[in-house]
Amino acid sequence: MGQQLLDIFERLLAHYGPLSWWPAETPFEVCVGAILTQNTAWTNVEKAVRALKQANVLDPAGLRDIGQERLAQLIRPAGYFNVKSQRLKDFIGWLQAKFDGSLEQMFANDWQGLRNELLEVRGIGPETCDAILLYAGQKPTFVVDAYTRRLFNRLGLLSINSGYEETRALFMENLPADVPLYNEYHALIVEHCKQFCRKKASCGECPLAAGCCHACP
DNA sequence: GCCCAGGTGGGTA
DNA sequence: TACCCACATGGG
Protein backbone atom coordinates (compact mmCIF):
# COMPACT_ATOMS: atom_id res chain seq x y z
CA MET A 1 0.00 0.00 0.00
CA GLY A 2 2.81 2.39 0.87
CA GLN A 3 4.40 1.85 -2.53
CA GLN A 4 1.06 2.42 -4.30
CA LEU A 5 0.58 5.68 -2.46
CA LEU A 6 4.10 6.76 -3.35
CA ASP A 7 3.58 5.81 -7.01
CA ILE A 8 0.47 7.97 -7.20
CA PHE A 9 2.33 10.80 -5.53
CA GLU A 10 5.23 10.53 -7.99
CA ARG A 11 2.90 10.58 -10.97
CA LEU A 12 1.07 13.64 -9.72
CA LEU A 13 4.33 15.38 -8.89
CA ALA A 14 5.80 14.60 -12.31
CA HIS A 15 2.68 15.97 -13.99
CA TYR A 16 1.99 19.11 -11.97
CA GLY A 17 5.40 19.88 -10.47
CA PRO A 18 5.95 20.98 -6.87
CA LEU A 19 3.15 23.28 -5.69
CA SER A 20 4.70 24.29 -2.36
CA TRP A 21 1.53 25.14 -0.47
CA TRP A 22 -0.13 26.88 1.41
CA PRO A 23 -0.87 29.96 -0.73
CA ALA A 24 -0.36 32.51 2.06
CA GLU A 25 2.31 34.95 3.24
CA THR A 26 2.32 34.08 6.95
CA PRO A 27 1.34 31.19 9.23
CA PHE A 28 -1.48 33.31 10.62
CA GLU A 29 -2.80 33.88 7.12
CA VAL A 30 -2.81 30.09 6.70
CA CYS A 31 -5.05 29.73 9.77
CA VAL A 32 -7.48 32.37 8.55
CA GLY A 33 -7.51 30.94 5.03
CA ALA A 34 -8.14 27.44 6.39
CA ILE A 35 -11.30 28.63 8.13
CA LEU A 36 -12.46 30.81 5.23
CA THR A 37 -12.06 28.05 2.63
CA GLN A 38 -14.51 25.70 4.35
CA ASN A 39 -16.80 24.46 1.58
CA THR A 40 -15.82 27.48 -0.48
CA ALA A 41 -13.92 28.09 -3.72
CA TRP A 42 -10.43 29.44 -3.10
CA THR A 43 -10.93 32.40 -5.47
CA ASN A 44 -13.61 33.68 -3.10
CA VAL A 45 -11.29 33.25 -0.13
CA GLU A 46 -8.64 35.34 -1.86
CA LYS A 47 -11.03 38.27 -2.06
CA ALA A 48 -11.81 38.06 1.63
CA VAL A 49 -8.12 37.78 2.57
CA ARG A 50 -7.36 40.79 0.39
CA ALA A 51 -10.05 42.78 2.18
CA LEU A 52 -8.63 41.82 5.58
CA LYS A 53 -5.17 42.95 4.48
CA GLN A 54 -6.49 46.25 3.16
CA ALA A 55 -8.27 46.82 6.46
CA ASN A 56 -4.98 45.99 8.19
CA VAL A 57 -6.55 43.41 10.50
CA LEU A 58 -4.91 40.19 9.27
CA ASP A 59 -3.07 39.45 12.52
CA PRO A 60 -4.15 38.14 15.94
CA ALA A 61 -4.54 41.57 17.52
CA GLY A 62 -6.36 42.95 14.48
CA LEU A 63 -8.95 40.18 14.43
CA ARG A 64 -9.25 40.31 18.21
CA ASP A 65 -10.09 44.01 18.22
CA ILE A 66 -12.33 44.30 15.16
CA GLY A 67 -16.09 44.15 15.68
CA GLN A 68 -17.73 40.98 14.43
CA GLU A 69 -20.19 42.86 12.22
CA ARG A 70 -17.36 44.65 10.49
CA LEU A 71 -15.38 41.43 10.19
CA ALA A 72 -18.38 39.70 8.63
CA GLN A 73 -18.66 42.44 5.99
CA LEU A 74 -14.96 42.22 5.16
CA ILE A 75 -15.07 38.46 4.58
CA ARG A 76 -18.40 38.57 2.77
CA PRO A 77 -16.99 37.32 -0.58
CA ALA A 78 -15.93 34.05 1.09
CA GLY A 79 -19.55 33.14 1.80
CA TYR A 80 -21.11 31.99 5.10
CA PHE A 81 -19.82 35.30 6.44
CA ASN A 82 -21.88 35.26 9.64
CA VAL A 83 -20.76 31.74 10.50
CA LYS A 84 -17.13 32.32 9.54
CA SER A 85 -16.76 35.64 11.34
CA GLN A 86 -17.89 33.85 14.51
CA ARG A 87 -15.46 30.99 13.83
CA LEU A 88 -12.58 33.40 13.36
CA LYS A 89 -13.53 35.15 16.59
CA ASP A 90 -13.72 31.84 18.43
CA PHE A 91 -10.29 30.77 17.18
CA ILE A 92 -8.72 34.14 18.04
CA GLY A 93 -10.33 34.14 21.49
CA TRP A 94 -8.95 30.67 22.16
CA LEU A 95 -5.50 31.60 20.84
CA GLN A 96 -5.47 34.71 23.01
CA ALA A 97 -6.63 32.97 26.17
CA LYS A 98 -4.47 29.90 25.77
CA PHE A 99 -1.29 31.16 24.10
CA ASP A 100 -1.39 34.92 24.60
CA GLY A 101 -2.31 35.34 20.93
CA SER A 102 0.95 33.75 19.77
CA LEU A 103 1.03 31.07 17.08
CA GLU A 104 4.66 30.42 18.01
CA GLN A 105 3.65 29.54 21.53
CA MET A 106 0.82 27.43 20.21
CA PHE A 107 3.07 25.40 17.93
CA ALA A 108 5.71 24.99 20.64
CA ASN A 109 3.48 22.32 22.21
CA ASP A 110 3.35 18.62 21.42
CA TRP A 111 1.37 18.68 18.19
CA GLN A 112 -0.75 15.60 18.81
CA GLY A 113 -2.03 17.08 22.06
CA LEU A 114 -2.48 20.41 20.31
CA ARG A 115 -4.55 18.67 17.62
CA ASN A 116 -6.99 17.43 20.23
CA GLU A 117 -7.27 20.88 21.77
CA LEU A 118 -7.77 22.58 18.40
CA LEU A 119 -10.57 20.16 17.59
CA GLU A 120 -12.40 21.41 20.67
CA VAL A 121 -12.56 24.94 19.26
CA ARG A 122 -15.91 25.66 17.64
CA GLY A 123 -15.61 25.89 13.89
CA ILE A 124 -12.34 23.95 13.73
CA GLY A 125 -13.14 20.52 12.33
CA PRO A 126 -10.59 17.85 11.40
CA GLU A 127 -9.65 19.24 7.99
CA THR A 128 -9.21 22.82 9.16
CA CYS A 129 -7.27 21.53 12.16
CA ASP A 130 -4.87 19.44 10.08
CA ALA A 131 -4.42 22.22 7.53
CA ILE A 132 -3.38 24.59 10.31
CA LEU A 133 -1.00 22.06 11.86
CA LEU A 134 0.63 21.05 8.57
CA TYR A 135 0.71 24.28 6.61
CA ALA A 136 1.07 26.86 9.37
CA GLY A 137 2.96 24.75 11.92
CA GLN A 138 4.94 22.29 9.79
CA LYS A 139 3.62 19.34 11.78
CA PRO A 140 3.51 15.91 10.06
CA THR A 141 -0.28 15.41 9.93
CA PHE A 142 -2.06 14.49 6.71
CA VAL A 143 -4.87 16.75 5.47
CA VAL A 144 -7.94 14.97 4.12
CA ASP A 145 -10.66 16.68 2.13
CA ALA A 146 -13.60 15.77 -0.10
CA TYR A 147 -11.25 15.44 -3.09
CA THR A 148 -9.03 12.97 -1.25
CA ARG A 149 -11.90 10.67 -0.41
CA ARG A 150 -13.43 10.92 -3.87
CA LEU A 151 -10.16 10.26 -5.67
CA PHE A 152 -8.93 7.35 -3.56
CA ASN A 153 -12.35 5.80 -3.50
CA ARG A 154 -12.39 5.86 -7.31
CA LEU A 155 -8.88 4.45 -7.39
CA GLY A 156 -10.17 1.55 -5.29
CA LEU A 157 -7.89 2.21 -2.33
CA LEU A 158 -10.58 3.46 0.02
CA SER A 159 -14.10 2.36 0.85
CA ILE A 160 -16.90 4.78 0.06
CA ASN A 161 -17.87 4.89 3.74
CA SER A 162 -14.41 5.74 5.02
CA GLY A 163 -14.62 8.69 7.37
CA TYR A 164 -12.07 11.41 7.98
CA GLU A 165 -9.87 9.64 10.50
CA GLU A 166 -9.85 6.39 8.59
CA THR A 167 -8.80 8.17 5.41
CA ARG A 168 -6.10 10.10 7.24
CA ALA A 169 -4.82 6.86 8.76
CA LEU A 170 -4.48 5.28 5.31
CA PHE A 171 -1.83 7.86 4.48
CA MET A 172 -0.18 8.24 7.86
CA GLU A 173 0.18 4.51 8.47
CA ASN A 174 1.59 3.83 5.02
CA LEU A 175 3.81 6.84 4.41
CA PRO A 176 6.72 8.24 6.42
CA ALA A 177 5.86 11.15 8.73
CA ASP A 178 7.38 13.67 6.37
CA VAL A 179 6.18 17.29 6.30
CA PRO A 180 7.25 18.18 2.74
CA LEU A 181 5.69 14.93 1.48
CA TYR A 182 2.36 15.55 3.24
CA ASN A 183 2.42 19.16 2.11
CA GLU A 184 2.87 18.29 -1.57
CA TYR A 185 0.60 15.27 -1.57
CA HIS A 186 -2.48 17.12 -0.36
CA ALA A 187 -1.76 20.07 -2.65
CA LEU A 188 -1.36 17.75 -5.66
CA ILE A 189 -4.61 15.95 -4.88
CA VAL A 190 -6.47 19.27 -4.84
CA GLU A 191 -4.82 20.46 -8.03
CA HIS A 192 -5.50 17.18 -9.80
CA CYS A 193 -9.15 17.09 -8.79
CA LYS A 194 -9.70 20.71 -9.78
CA GLN A 195 -8.55 19.82 -13.28
CA PHE A 196 -10.00 16.35 -13.75
CA CYS A 197 -12.82 15.86 -11.27
CA ARG A 198 -14.39 19.06 -12.58
CA LYS A 199 -14.14 18.08 -16.24
CA LYS A 200 -11.72 20.79 -17.28
CA ALA A 201 -9.45 18.33 -19.01
CA SER A 202 -9.95 15.13 -20.91
CA CYS A 203 -8.96 11.90 -19.23
CA GLY A 204 -6.55 11.11 -22.04
CA GLU A 205 -4.08 13.44 -20.34
CA CYS A 206 -4.76 12.14 -16.84
CA PRO A 207 -1.51 11.29 -15.02
CA LEU A 208 -3.30 8.57 -13.05
CA ALA A 209 -4.93 5.35 -14.17
CA ALA A 210 -8.27 5.66 -15.96
CA GLY A 211 -11.14 5.59 -13.50
CA CYS A 212 -9.85 8.28 -11.16
CA CYS A 213 -12.71 10.66 -11.89
CA HIS A 214 -16.29 10.62 -13.12
CA ALA A 215 -15.24 11.72 -16.58
CA CYS A 216 -12.99 8.68 -16.94
CA PRO A 217 -14.34 5.77 -19.01
C1' DG B 1 -31.02 29.30 -14.04
C1' DC B 2 -28.50 25.46 -11.82
C1' DC B 3 -24.63 23.23 -9.60
C1' DC B 4 -20.97 23.22 -6.68
C1' DA B 5 -16.82 24.76 -3.96
C1' DG B 6 -9.92 22.69 -0.37
C1' DG B 7 -16.53 21.88 5.99
C1' DT B 8 -18.71 22.23 10.37
C1' DG B 9 -22.18 21.98 13.92
C1' DG B 10 -26.72 21.16 15.42
C1' DG B 11 -30.89 18.51 15.31
C1' DT B 12 -33.51 14.21 14.81
C1' DA B 13 -34.41 8.98 14.62
C1' DT C 1 -24.27 5.93 14.77
C1' DA C 2 -26.41 7.72 10.59
C1' DC C 3 -28.50 10.93 7.90
C1' DC C 4 -30.42 15.88 7.10
C1' DC C 5 -30.06 20.65 7.11
C1' DA C 6 -28.39 25.59 7.44
C1' DC C 7 -24.89 28.47 6.35
C1' DA C 8 -23.89 32.28 1.30
C1' DT C 9 -20.94 34.10 -2.32
C1' DG C 10 -19.21 33.72 -7.04
C1' DG C 11 -17.59 31.10 -11.14
C1' DG C 12 -18.50 27.60 -14.81
How would you describe what is shown here?
This protein is an all-alpha fold and 217 residues long. It folds into two domains: 2-20 and 143-205; 27-136, Orthogonal Bundle (Endonuclease III, domain 1). Helices cover 61% and strands 0% of the residues. The chain has twelve helices and no strands. The chain has helices at 2-16, 27-36, 42-54, 60-65, 68-74, 81-99, 103-107, 111-120, 126-136, 146-154, 164-172, 179-196. α2 (27-36) crosses α3 (42-54). The longest helix is centred in the middle third of the chain and has 19 residues, at 81-99. The radius of gyration is 18 Å and the shape is globular. It binds a DNA duplex (13 and 12 nucleotides) through residues 33-35, 37-45, 47, 76-84, 87, 122-128, 131, 143, 145-148, 186-187, 189-190, 193-194, 198, 200.
Summarize this, please?
It is built from twelve helices and no strands.
Pick out its properties.
217 residues; mainly alpha; Endonuclease III, domain 1; 2 domains; 12 helices; 61% helix; globular; DNA-binding
Round the mean pLDDT to the nearest integer and report it.
94
Report on the biggest sheet: none
CATH architecture of the largest domain: Orthogonal Bundle
Number of strands: 0
Order of helices and strands: HHHHHHHHHHHH
- How would you describe the shape? globular
Report the CATH topology name of the largest domain.
Endonuclease III, domain 1
Low-confidence stretches: none
Reading off the top of the CATH hierarchy, the class of the largest domain is best stated as Mainly Alpha
Number of domains: 2
As a percent range, the share of helical residues equals 55-70%
| Secondary-structure-derived class | mainly alpha
Hey, roughly how much beta strand do the residues contain?
under 5%
Structural Rg: 18 Å
Going by CATH, the homologous superfamily of the largest domain would be Hypothetical protein, domain 2
Helix count, DSSP H or I runs of 4 or more residues: 12
